[in-house]
TrEMBL record:
The keyword Membrane applies. It comes from the Bacteria. InterPro entries: MFS, MFS_dom, MFS_trans_sf, MFS_Transporters, Sugar_transporter_CS. The keyword Iron does not apply. Residues 27-429 form the Major facilitator superfamily (MFS) profile domain. Pfam families: MFS_1. Its main location: membrane. It is found in: Cell membrane. The chain crosses the membrane at residues 33-51, 71-91, 103-120, 126-148, 160-180, 192-212, 317-334, 340-363, 407-426. This is MFS transporter. It comes from Planomonospora alba.
Amino acid sequence: MSATVPTSGGTGGDTGDAAGAGVGIRLGLAANLPQFVLLVAVNALVGGMLGQERITLPLLAETVFGLSAHTAALTYILAFGTTKAITNFFAGTWSDRYGRKPVLIAGWLIALPVPAMLAWGPSWGWIIAANVLLGVSQGLTWSTTVIMKIDLAGPARRGLAMGFNEAAGYFAVAATALATGHLAERFGLRPAPFLLGAAYAALGLGLSTLIVRETREHARAEAAAHPVGGHHHAELSTRQIAWRTSVGDRSLSAAGQAGMVNNLNDALAWGIFPLVFAARGLGVAEIGVLGALYPAVWGLGQMATGWWSDHVGRKHLITAGMLVQAAAIALVALGESFTVWAAAQVLLGAGTALVYPTLLAVIGDVAHPAWRARAVGVYRLWRDGGFAVGALLAGIIADLWSLEAAVWTVAGLTGVSGLVVAVRMTETRPGRA
């Protein structure tokens, strides 16, 4: 499905699918398929940059750098989550001001030194610094690919577009985690696993610089044709948008807290689960398989759940997904075998797949095109702040009590978050709101 909207004159930039002056810009996946597919591939490389750390860094903290305290060992997730969350906020504003493509390229440039710092950094401080850069890079690149796909897709297939975006990113996380687990088993924890990241960064920068096209004009054209208060919405300040997204709008604020708790879960899976599995006697390769199962199911499942949310609505999928995640995390705490933990990882991936693209679709549904990019930035500020909150919370509880206590705490918080969505969020899908 596609729609043609008139350009709003005098805005400049690459008009994507505009056939010529006065013809207009076409919205929709079919009308923008080559660029959409390219952006899916770019986001897979973005996800791969994150996947290179999923198995190796929790084990490096203990075996190479001798960090026995869980709070200290999880500082890399704290550094990553904090910088990514803050950068997400600015990425939306900058993409409106300067265009999407320059922000995307800047993100890849910042990513270039990260693999080398992880592979050869002589102290834990180097690992922290690498994750600061990685957080900034991910905030710029992942946020921008989300915004660009929303620009191209138009309102009718927004959930499907987000499903493909997040599926590509998190399937790449899974595939890279699996690959680095095997590389670490065969060649050691450093440097071999991080050579994949170096290749991803070089390829991502090349594609973004040479082939990706600007999509800001698609959002401007959609805003010009929007039936409700376009001029008023264009005058909203960033502060007003931040308040509306974080607190003022029931659906947007419910999405923000659910996103934060979801990534709090991911911090637990990233930093604590490998330690739980290792403490129960699993080897690096087995931990790599478990670490890959969760994002693999999460990634692949989003192609279906994003499409599903376009047809049945957003709210109930998000509520169900949070409750399924809570059950899966509890199963990790209860489990004693690889088989049980594998089932828990599949269940956790399925619950996350119900939630992740659907939350982004909610933001696209509610936010006016004139301030949508900034709303995405605010939402992703809260969502990726969950990495930092999760690292601190899980680390402190693990140090005070146990790894299992940290897992149970996060399971409870996840269940409460699902109930908040059920009570506070309204249905936002176009045609059902």
